Amino acid sequence: MHTPRTIAFWDDPLDPPGGGQFSLLTLLTHLDRDRYRPEVHLFGGPSFRALLAREGIEARRTGLLKSVFYLFRRRPDLVHCNIATSRRAWILALSARLAGVPFVWHVRIIDSAGWKDRWMARLADRIVVISEAVRARFAAERDKTVRIYNGVDMERFARVEAEYAAEEGGAERGFRIGVFSRLDPWKGHELFLDALLKLGEAGPPVEVWIAGEGDPRYRARLEDTVRRHGLTDRVRFLGHREDVPALMRQCDAVVNPSIRPEPFGRTLIEAMASGAAVVATARGGAREVIDPEKDGMLVEPEPGALAAALERLRHDRSMRSRLAANAWNKCAQQFSAEAHARRVMDLYAEMCGDSATEAVR
């Protein structure tokens, strides 16, 4: 039996953790430890480090100089960098090149960083992009890119499904809508609230859960909008939550109302795995995840279009059920954590000269 190869991961986490951190966690918990041994290095991010620890994954707090010394002293089999274009990422890539260590750059942001992207792309051996929308950043280095969609832990959502199965067929309740994202203007919460105001009075009563944290000033602005329009009895701000699967499972619809293109839209596949109907603005990665009218709904980023889609779902339970069932099947087939980890491990195998189960491109 061969010794597992050492994969050194670096991240500069948001605190609280964002979608990039949860995607990395999903990968780390699904790596084949007989083949690959992860060593995780974090520039800060105490909340993410604690989250990893709960999953039995040790993460080392590091600094830039310490990271460079590690690369030259330890020379892992491969570096997997989960950091956006930055001085830290660039120095890590350059150090790996000088140390002779293969460098994989995992890119989760859709916006170009211009010449900084070009320098990073030249230093990286391979660039993992999470969607075709993100791949467009790297036209000049397209041959280095490999698209690997994010994955979701279907078993985690299945446990929640079993927990709430007893509630099915219970007392009639209203139409519950969930929005799960960081509180940031480009995530479209204001667009969503404008759409909410356009919903009619007829039909099941509407309840809204908004989960996530971010800029306190932006949250205050959203809360003020809710108060001014008399929506306080319908809209709840839940803050940062770690029980997202349980919350999504209790929603009839999950909305991703981003006003700028999403790189992928991790919330989308989590909602698909939870059994909720999904509505998203037709920009960026959402167009790769959702097949409109089959497993979700895509709308233009304007209040009237979003309101119209929500009214359809509000009044048509059979449509909600059909979209949700198709979405769950698609998620299990295309966006499972196992499929994601398998593709990443095949890339590792290719770069380390091992045998892979499938071609990576």
From TrEMBL:
Keywords: Glycosyltransferase, Transferase. Residues 19-156 form the Glycosyltransferase subfamily 4-like N-terminal domain. InterPro entries: Glyco_trans_1 (IPR001296), Glyco_trans_4-like_N (IPR028098). It holds the Pfam family Glycos_transf_1. Residues 172-327 form the Glycosyl transferase family domain. Transmembrane segments: none annotated. CDD domains: GT4_PimA-like. GO terms for molecular function: glycosyltransferase activity. Belongs to the glycosyltransferase group 1 family. Glycosyltransferase 4 subfamily. This is Putative glycosyltransferase.
